[in-house]
Amino acid sequence: MKNLFHGRLLPLVLALCLSGCGSPEDRINAAIPVDAEVVTAHEAIAAMAGDQSDAVGKIEEEYRARLKVRALTCAPGYAPSMFTSKGMIRVAAGNASCFADADKVLAKWLALRRIGLMLALPALRELPKTPPALLSGKAS
Q1: What's this model's pTM, rounded to 2 decimal places?
Q2: How far apart are CA 21 and CA 23, in angstroms?
Q3: How far apart are CA 105 and CA 96, in angstroms?
Q4: 68 CB contacts (<8 Å, ≥6 apart)?
Q5: Is 75 within 8 Å of 95 (Cβ atoms)?
Q6: Of 37, 39, 100, whose CA–CA distance to 70 is shortest?
Q7: For residue 1, what pLDDT is reported?
């Protein structure tokens, strides 16, 4: 009987821990998600991962760090408990205008990183070895 109880309790405890054992910043960001503009810009950068995986990996790390800063800046000193619901986190964190402003800055940062990745791509076609002769519009 003891093994049966232990066998059912362990998966339950493990599931609870895995679902709610994130950092307070992660829980705040999950309760107050970023704007659709940020999501679109982040997906565009993630789509470029095949060509430039090293650069995209660094951008992804900095993106996660900026999300944490977003939560710390817009909900200073607030650390939700493991059992606080997303609705209660939204109410307690408040400051919707700060989150909106942070999302605009984050979207602009992602757009600039995407431009940088696109500029780092190789040329679309090979450059000619010799430049073409110049044509003149004058009649001879």
Answers
A1: 0.71
A2: 7
A3: 14
A4: 23, 25, 26, 29
A5: yes
A6: 100
A7: 47
- Would you kindly state where each structural domain of the chain is located, as residue ranges? 21-119
pLDDT per residue as tens digits for the range 16-42: 555 555 788 899 888 989 999 999 999
The gap from C-alpha 116 to its chain's centroid, in whole angstroms, comes to: 17
Compute mean pLDDT per 10 residues along the chain, 140 residues long, and list them. 55 56 85 93 87 84 94 89 85 87 95 91 83 73
Task: Note the residue count of the chain.
Answer: 140
**H or E segment and range at residue 116:** helix 96-120
For 21-38, letters b (16+ CB in 10 Å) and e give eeebbebbbebbebeeeb
